[in-house]
Amino acid sequence: MQTMNQPRMQDTILVVELDSPIGRLPMAIHRDALCALALDADDATFTRSLAAMPGAVRHCAIDELDGEAARIVDAITRYFDGDIHAIDDVPVRAAGSGFQHRVWDALRTIPAGETTSYAQIAAEVGAPAASRAVGRANGTNPVPIVVPCHRVIRADGTLGGYGGGLDRKRWLLAHERAHTSARAGALAL
Hints:
By secondary structure, the protein is of the alpha/beta class. It has two domains: 9-80, Double Stranded RNA Binding Domain; 98-188, Orthogonal Bundle (Arc Repressor Mutant, subunit A), CATH 1.10.10.10. The chain is built from six helices and six strands. The protein has a four-stranded mixed sheet. A two-stranded parallel sheet has the order 5-6. Helix 4 (118-124) crosses helix 5. The longest helix has 23 residues, at 166-188. The chain starts with 11 loop residues before the first strand and ends with a helix.
């Protein structure tokens, strides 16, 4: 029986850490969606995201997860194992403005292994003069990798900034390109 002091599971924010090829990835799952993912354990955006979420925070091990939370972590694990499309349907629920959500939604349409520019995303969200605002929305993305802000580059083709560092951005793009090429080669056989 639940007492008044115990949060219901649906109001609990589950925080787990996944070891990945680009480092430890703390993530928060609330109800049925990924709400935050950090590329660094002390990531300030992750901490702010947790503070803004309703519910009690519960840290747990990956093997304690079940249901949608387990499926989310499994999809991210499979992404790092080479199934780069495993994250395409991961449900995301992140706090942000209407403009940020339009940008984040547009990011999820960039195919794995491909890149686009800040200007192209600005045009896509109906604000062609807002390249810098798109950059800020990328910088505040609370769910990197799944909302693939690493796929956005400068108009001149250079990588630009990345909250997780340019080495991680390079790694993610190379990982996706390698597995996109490998999949295309396998389909051609």
